[in-house]
Structure formats: structure tokens, C-alpha cells
Amino acid sequence: MLNGFWGKFGKRFFDVALSLAIVASLWPVFLVVATLVRLKLGSPVIFSQNRLGKDAKEFKLYKFRSMTDARDSNGELFPDDVRLTPFGRLLRSTSLDELPQVANILKGEMSFIGPRATLPAYKNLLLERYPERFLVMPGITSLPAIRGRNALDWGQKFSLDVEYVRRFGFMMDFEILIKTIPVVLGREGIEMPGQATATRYDHQDNEKKD
User: Fold this and answer.
1) pLDDT per residue rounded down to tens, the chain (210 residues)
2) CA–CA distance from 199 to each of 4, 28, 153 (Å)?
3) Long-range contacts from 192-201, C-beta under 8 angstroms, 24+ separation
């Protein structure tokens, strides 16, 4: 199915068309959010970070900034739960922080639907254990997003990513897109239990759980 019509042409056409529609219709939202981020969190407004894309190639992912740069007396950044302000939590819970990723989609680095883009530090581990997830472009929403989001552990998320690739097709993407709407509106699974943000991938813990 990866080499079928949807994989070769349809999905990319859909991504570009929807991205342009979002930019054209929601540009006031982009402007308001950017202004609020600048006023409440400072510069830079856009947070960028290297992530792994299709074929495990690195690209720079964009998000609206949601945390401060508060540091301790030694110049070290405070933990995420300290730097994540109520405003930042609001951005994340509404997924507004992810709006700049339409730029990644237009550049051909991401899709609306696909495995979440992971950190380069996990490249070798993921290529060894879950290589199939790199056969497609990463997405803003995914199969794990509608099956529990950050309430899932990493092993569950990566296994669902592999399931997505194996079931790849229009109907799979359509199901995820439709089911993402109530998940976002209901703000389900925003945080991992007991964590302000998602924990880092610990492959040893997940090997015990898998």
C-alpha cells in the first residue's frame, strides 16, 4: 500500500491542500498565538529542534514555544514542570503549539498523519527495534494519538506506529483524522501520568514491557 496511489500521490496532495487551507483560514490565529508567546514567554517565538523523519533522516521541526528559559544559579535549565507555565500548558493542551508544523508539511518533511517525529538520539535504537516506522513521513497526529496519546508508554506508541505502517492506506488515515478531532477537543492524554511533559524514551524499561 505504501507504493499505491494514496502513498505516492494522494497523501501528499491532501497534505499540501489542507496546509494551504489552514494557513489561509487561520492566519489570524497564528498571529495572535505568536504575539501572546512573545509577550508571555519571550523570544524566540518559534521553537525548533532536530527530529528524525522518513528514512531516519534529520530535519528541523517547528513549534510555538511553550516553555521559558528559566535557569538555576549554575546556569542550568530548570525541569520542564517548572518552565512550563499555565499559558504553555494551554498551548499544549489545545495543540496550538503544533500549528507551525504546517511549514514542515509544505516543505515535504512531515505529513498530517504518521508516526511522531522522534529525537535523533534514539535513531539506532529505533532502527534496530522499529525500523518500519521510518518507511513513512512523521505526522502531527498518529495512531497512538487516538489510542491514548501520552497516557501510553513508549513501547506501546512505537508498536502502534508499526501497525500504522502495516495498515497504511486512505482508510487508515481517514480514521485517524476523524478520531483526532474529539481527542484534541477533549484534551485527552496530553501528559504522561505524573509528568508535566512526555518522558524520554528509556529502551531498557520498554524492553521489559514489550
Assistant:
1) 788 899 999 999 999 999 999 999 999 999 999 999 999 999 999 999 999 999 999 999 999 999 988 887 777 888 888 888 899 999 998 999 999 999 999 999 999 999 999 999 999 999 999 999 999 999 999 999 999 877 899 999 999 999 999 999 999 999 999 999 988 877 665 554 444 445 566 655 444 333
2) 36, 33, 9
3) 192/150, 192/151, 193/151, 195/81, 195/150, 196/79, 196/80, 196/81, 196/84, 197/80, 197/81, 197/84, 198/150, 199/154, 201/118, 201/119, 201/122, 201/125, 201/154
- Amino acid (1-letter code) at residue 137: M
Gap between the Cα atoms of 42 and 11, Å rounded: 36
Note the pTM of the prediction, 2 decimals.
0.86
Would you state the cell numbers that stand for residue 63, as one nine-digit string? 513549534
Pull the grid cell for residue 130.
522499529
Cell of 183: 481527542
**Ordered DSSP codes for 117-184:** PPPGGGHHHHHHH-GGGGGS--EEE-HHHHTTGGGS-HHHHHHHHHHHHHT-SHHHHHHHHHHHHHHH
Half-sphere exposure of 163 (CA within 13 A, CB side): 12
